[in-house]
Amino acid sequence: MNELRVTGKQKIGNIEFTGIEGGFGKEKKAMTVKDIAEIHGTEVRRINEVINRNRKRFINGVDIVDLKSAIVLNDNEISKFGFTQNAFNASKNIYILSERGYAKLLKILEDDT
Q1: Residue 82 and residue 55: Cα distance in Å, rounded?
Q2: pLDDT for the residue numbered 75
Q3: Are 68 and 52 in contact (CB under 8 A)?
Q4: By the 8 A CB rule, do 97 and 67 touch?
């Protein structure tokens, strides 16, 4: 897995999200499940449930990375991804998805976003 780099907050239209590069290849873009949940107006828990039910569709390191199991993050790195230490500790999975992984998720989600 390539090194992840948080590039800061980015905005497309009226949607603001955490800019992430790496993890899936040099300069490849990625998104946290937290940002995806905000875009779709739902809870992180629901997005995680959809991913976990369809986990076989996502290829590790190509479509999805679980930050919780893939790498060890210190407190400063956790906050860069938009999570508190408590949220990180309480979560079973903290996923980031590549553009390809997000496209796969969009096919599974049942909303109009």
Answers
A1: 23
A2: 55
A3: no
A4: no
Q: Long-range pairs for 13-16 at CB < 8 Å and ≥24 separation? A: 15/39
Position 72 scores a pLDDT of: 56
Sites in the chain below the pLDDT cut of 70 = 1-2, 70-77, 112-113
| pTM of the shown model | 0.81
Q: Which of these, 63, 3, 77, lies nearest to 33 by C-alpha position?
A: 63
Distance, in Å, from the CA atom of 56 to the CA atom of 53, rounded to the nearest integer, reads 8
**From CA 67, how far away is CA 110, in angstroms rounded?**
25
What are the structure tokens assigned to 48, written together? Answer: 């995680």
Q: What is the pLDDT of residue 85?
A: 77
Give the list of residues 6+ apart from residue 14 with CB closer than 8 angstroms, or none.
Answer: none
Paired residues of 32 in beta bridges? 96
Q: Which of 29, 35, 63, 33 is nearest to 50 (CA)?
A: 33
- What are residue 10's DSSP bridge partners? 17
